[in-house]
Amino acid sequence: MRNSILFSIGAALLAAALPAQAASPAATAKAEARLAKALDGRVAGKPVDCINLRDIQSSEIIDRTAILYRVGSKLYLNRPDMGQESLDSDDILVTRTSTSQLCSLDTVRLVDRNSQFQTGFVGLGKFVPYTRVASN
Fold it and tell me: Which residue ranges make up each domain of the chain?
Protein backbone atom coordinates (compact mmCIF):
# COMPACT_ATOMS: atom_id res chain seq x y z
CA MET A 1 0.00 0.00 0.00
CA ARG A 2 2.72 2.43 1.03
CA ASN A 3 4.75 1.61 -2.09
CA SER A 4 1.80 2.29 -4.37
CA ILE A 5 1.28 5.71 -2.73
CA LEU A 6 4.97 6.55 -3.11
CA PHE A 7 4.88 5.35 -6.71
CA SER A 8 1.85 7.56 -7.44
CA ILE A 9 3.52 10.58 -5.88
CA GLY A 10 6.74 9.92 -7.79
CA ALA A 11 4.88 9.51 -11.09
CA ALA A 12 2.99 12.75 -10.54
CA LEU A 13 6.19 14.63 -9.74
CA LEU A 14 7.86 13.24 -12.84
CA ALA A 15 4.90 14.19 -15.03
CA ALA A 16 4.91 17.73 -13.61
CA ALA A 17 8.63 18.06 -14.32
CA LEU A 18 8.35 17.04 -17.97
CA PRO A 19 7.95 19.89 -20.44
CA ALA A 20 4.48 20.21 -21.92
CA GLN A 21 4.18 19.30 -25.58
CA ALA A 22 3.51 22.08 -28.01
CA ALA A 23 -0.06 22.16 -29.26
CA SER A 24 -0.62 20.85 -32.76
CA PRO A 25 -1.85 23.34 -35.36
CA ALA A 26 -5.22 21.54 -35.39
CA ALA A 27 -5.54 21.78 -31.59
CA THR A 28 -4.56 25.45 -31.67
CA ALA A 29 -7.13 26.16 -34.39
CA LYS A 30 -9.80 24.30 -32.39
CA ALA A 31 -9.00 26.29 -29.24
CA GLU A 32 -9.04 29.60 -31.13
CA ALA A 33 -12.39 28.67 -32.74
CA ARG A 34 -13.83 27.85 -29.29
CA LEU A 35 -12.56 31.19 -28.00
CA ALA A 36 -14.01 33.07 -31.00
CA LYS A 37 -17.39 31.41 -30.40
CA ALA A 38 -17.36 32.43 -26.72
CA LEU A 39 -16.52 36.04 -27.66
CA ASP A 40 -18.91 36.25 -30.64
CA GLY A 41 -20.98 39.44 -30.57
CA ARG A 42 -18.61 41.15 -28.14
CA VAL A 43 -16.02 43.88 -28.57
CA ALA A 44 -12.71 44.17 -26.77
CA GLY A 45 -12.07 47.01 -24.36
CA LYS A 46 -8.88 48.43 -22.90
CA PRO A 47 -6.84 45.78 -21.03
CA VAL A 48 -6.76 46.08 -17.24
CA ASP A 49 -4.25 44.77 -14.69
CA CYS A 50 -6.74 43.41 -12.12
CA ILE A 51 -10.29 42.21 -11.60
CA ASN A 52 -12.10 41.87 -8.25
CA LEU A 53 -12.22 38.28 -7.02
CA ARG A 54 -15.64 38.74 -5.41
CA ASP A 55 -17.12 39.77 -8.78
CA ILE A 56 -15.94 36.68 -10.71
CA GLN A 57 -18.97 34.48 -11.38
CA SER A 58 -17.22 31.73 -13.32
CA SER A 59 -14.08 30.84 -15.21
CA GLU A 60 -13.47 28.72 -18.29
CA ILE A 61 -10.20 27.28 -19.50
CA ILE A 62 -9.59 27.28 -23.24
CA ASP A 63 -7.05 24.46 -23.71
CA ARG A 64 -3.43 25.66 -24.07
CA THR A 65 -4.68 29.15 -24.94
CA ALA A 66 -6.51 31.31 -22.39
CA ILE A 67 -8.81 31.68 -19.41
CA LEU A 68 -12.18 33.44 -19.66
CA TYR A 69 -13.52 35.03 -16.48
CA ARG A 70 -17.21 36.02 -16.37
CA VAL A 71 -17.85 39.20 -14.36
CA GLY A 72 -21.48 40.28 -14.66
CA SER A 73 -22.25 40.71 -18.36
CA LYS A 74 -18.55 41.10 -19.25
CA LEU A 75 -16.07 38.42 -20.18
CA TYR A 76 -12.43 39.03 -19.30
CA LEU A 77 -9.95 37.23 -21.53
CA ASN A 78 -6.60 36.39 -20.00
CA ARG A 79 -3.86 34.98 -22.21
CA PRO A 80 -1.22 33.97 -19.65
CA ASP A 81 2.27 35.39 -20.08
CA MET A 82 3.75 32.01 -19.18
CA GLY A 83 2.60 28.43 -18.83
CA GLN A 84 -0.38 28.61 -21.18
CA GLU A 85 0.66 25.28 -22.69
CA SER A 86 -0.36 23.72 -19.33
CA LEU A 87 -3.97 24.93 -19.61
CA ASP A 88 -6.39 21.99 -19.77
CA SER A 89 -10.17 22.28 -19.54
CA ASP A 90 -10.20 19.20 -17.28
CA ASP A 91 -8.14 21.03 -14.65
CA ILE A 92 -9.25 23.15 -11.72
CA LEU A 93 -7.85 26.68 -11.28
CA VAL A 94 -6.41 27.22 -7.79
CA THR A 95 -5.76 30.86 -6.99
CA ARG A 96 -4.09 32.30 -3.89
CA THR A 97 -3.85 36.03 -3.61
CA SER A 98 -2.95 38.38 -0.79
CA THR A 99 -5.49 40.98 -1.91
CA SER A 100 -9.13 40.97 -3.00
CA GLN A 101 -8.09 41.17 -6.64
CA LEU A 102 -6.77 38.80 -9.26
CA CYS A 103 -3.97 40.60 -11.09
CA SER A 104 -1.68 40.17 -14.07
CA LEU A 105 1.28 39.39 -11.82
CA ASP A 106 -0.50 36.50 -10.06
CA THR A 107 0.10 32.83 -10.72
CA VAL A 108 -2.62 30.20 -10.85
CA ARG A 109 -2.00 26.54 -10.09
CA LEU A 110 -3.67 23.92 -12.26
CA VAL A 111 -4.88 20.79 -10.46
CA ASP A 112 -6.20 17.64 -12.13
CA ARG A 113 -9.89 17.24 -11.36
CA ASN A 114 -9.59 13.49 -10.71
CA SER A 115 -6.17 12.83 -9.15
CA GLN A 116 -5.96 16.18 -7.32
CA PHE A 117 -2.30 16.43 -8.38
CA GLN A 118 -0.89 19.70 -9.66
CA THR A 119 -0.47 19.60 -13.43
CA GLY A 120 1.13 22.99 -13.96
CA PHE A 121 0.73 26.69 -13.38
CA VAL A 122 0.28 29.86 -15.38
CA GLY A 123 1.47 33.42 -14.90
CA LEU A 124 -1.46 35.67 -15.72
CA GLY A 125 -1.29 38.42 -18.31
CA LYS A 126 -3.52 41.47 -18.68
CA PHE A 127 -7.30 41.05 -18.55
CA VAL A 128 -9.09 42.18 -21.72
CA PRO A 129 -12.76 43.02 -21.11
CA TYR A 130 -15.28 41.99 -23.77
CA THR A 131 -18.76 43.51 -23.73
CA ARG A 132 -21.78 42.72 -25.88
CA VAL A 133 -22.36 44.90 -28.91
CA ALA A 134 -25.52 46.97 -28.50
CA SER A 135 -28.13 45.84 -31.01
CA ASN A 136 -29.99 48.48 -32.99
Answer: 21-132
Residues 3/11, Cβ–Cβ less than 8 Å: no
Give the phi and the psi of residue 119 in degrees, each rounded to 5. Answer: -110, -10
Gap between the Cα atoms of 80 and 95, Å rounded: 14
Measured between alpha carbons, how far apart are the two ends of the chain, in Å?
66
| Per-residue tens of pLDDT for the chain, all 136 residues | 444 443 444 444 444 444 444 568 888 899 999 999 999 999 999 999 999 999 999 999 999 999 999 999 999 999 999 999 999 999 999 998 989 999 999 999 999 999 999 999 999 999 999 999 887 6
Supply the pTM of this predicted model: 0.80
Quick check: helix, strand or coil at residue 82?
A: strand
CA distances from 4 to 1, 15, 16, 23, 57 (A): 5, 16, 18, 32, 39
d(Cα 75, Cα 4) in Å, to the nearest integer? 43
| CA gap 80, 14 in Å, rounded | 24
Helix (H) or strand (E) holding 112: strand 107-112
